Amino acid sequence: MTGAYVYVDFGAVRIQQYLARTPGLRGHRAASNNLARATAAALILEVIGDLAEVNPEAGRADGVVSVRFPAAEGGCEERVRRLQERMFAHLRRALPGAEFQSVWGEGESYLAVYAHILQPKVRRGQVRHDLPPSAEFPLAVPCRMCHVDPAVGVEPVPDGLLALCLDCSRRNVPRRQAVADTRSPEGQLLQDIGLAPAPDSFTDLAALGSAASGRNHLATVAVDGNAFGLFFKALADEGGQDARLREAKASISTALSLATRAALANAALELPLTVEREQLCVVPHVVGGDDVLVSLPADQAWWFTLTFLKEFERLVRKETAEVLDQLNELRVGRAGLPALEAPTASAGVVFARASHPLNLLVESAGMRLSEAKAAFRGRQASVHWLDITADGAEYPGHPPVALHLLRNGDGGATAAAAALSRLVEVPASHRARLTEALRGSGPLTAAALADRVGHLDAIRPFLPPLNRIDQLDQIGQPSVSGIGLGAALNLARWWPCA
Ligand SMILES: [Zn+2]
User: Fold this and answer.
1) Over the stretch 347-360, which tens digit does the pLDDT of each residue have?
2) Do residues 196 and 329 both lie within one domain?
């Protein structure tokens, strides 16, 4: 025995898009439940038998299964292959339309194997794929629910009969069974916060919003950690000799996925709407190690997003403080490397009518998230957003914003947040005219218009300081509050009233 393990990971590829391929919340929940049941530890143990054990060093993430077995002298490829075949067959039965991949590697700790073998293999495409079987009858009618796979039969659905593919057939459960399984991300959140369940459909979820919101808009929020890879790799590379760091290596992944879950529960609980209704008003679709995807009423989105990001930062800092101190002692003292900061998270937020297809929203929220991360190179928490109803589905006309501009460390209002609360009090029709003037003729015209109708004070924090007023003709110029007028007018649409 070498003390090393062979780690074998399985994951659903593009899991968010797969879950979102049926338009309604009912089909989505059913797929999410199927995934949660299929990847629950007890069932995985049955599937892998004596070939492996569930990997205790890996944190929990939806759609991901990690197993391990002790590395023996000689080859282990045959055992990996048998494991993959069993697991793929099992996952395929549960989720007929999903695409899976598996990757494996050998080493002393999961963290090191993940950073040095598994992740590079995934990047280079050195993975084993398992694809849905292709249609035996190429002329079969396409599925009327997802429009992705060929239909295999006609079934009753709530409003008639539909030709469905195998995957949509699995999602077509009766309404009374369409409640969140306790192992699904929604079921877990419900267990964590202990309130009445979320509504049955996206329409009903949007209807929970305030009367002023129109009660027909939802926000899709995608969150992902910043620089976790850097942190994990540094931890994997250092501290082979240090007992405390070795111990941290084995437990940090689980601790961080618990921090993600706790941040989600805290943010959901602190929503004004949750407090008012004593009901779950956030539907989580996927909760991974450091990523989260949720839907919620549009007028709750900024509350949720800013609270989640702050809570996440606080909890991750708490979990990593000791490890980072030791790591930085080694890095800075010995190698002269820059000190590492605790990882943070960024968010992409998309606003649209409740009837907008979820798969498009998931795609768009993911793009906004990438833009937010890229704008700050993953070095600080940030947000980017798009209002599809007001601005169309194209790239937003305003830049991403750093989180610290919108929310203080202690949760208090920043100068920009206070100014936004004032801007919300300007009637929506005036704000729409200001947006039009800004887009048509620039900030000088917008400022003149605001002055005429008595709202100049409300927009002044989003204009450059008076001694730099000559820069007014540039959109995205530095402003007093750190946020430009275009971004501020856009944020104000769904900014919560104080
Ligand atoms: Zn289908």
Assistant:
1) 999 999 999 999 99
2) yes
Q: Which domain holds residue 431?
A: 421-492
The CA 168 to ligand 1 mean position distance, Å, reads 4
Same domain, 116 and 192: no
How far, in Å, is the centroid of ligand 1 from the Cα of 283? 22
Boundary-marking domain end, from 383, 411, 439? 411
Are 248 and 123 part of one and the same domain? no
pLDDT, tens only, 94-130: 999 999 999 999 999 999 999 999 999 999 999 999 9
Cβ neighbours for 119, distance < 8 A, ≥ 6 positions apart:
229
Q: 430-464: per-residue pLDDT in tens? A: 999 999 999 888 888 899 999 999 999 999 999 87
Count the domains in the chain: 3
- Residues with a beta carbon under 5 angstroms from ion ligand 1: 143, 145-146, 165, 168
Q: By C-alpha distance, which of 350, 203, 209, 206 is closest to 273?
A: 209
Q: So what's the pLDDT on residue 1?
A: 47
* 387 and 446 both lie in a single domain: no
CATH number at residue 111: 3.30.70.270
Mean pLDDT on 237-244: 76
Handedness of CA 460, 462, 463, 468 (dihedral sign): positive
249 vs 243: CA distance, rounded Å: 10
Give the integer Cα–Cα distance in Å for 243 and 270: 39
What is the distance in A from the centroid of ligand 1 to the CA of 22? 7
pLDDT of the residue at 498: 60
**Same domain membership, residue 196 and residue 114:** no
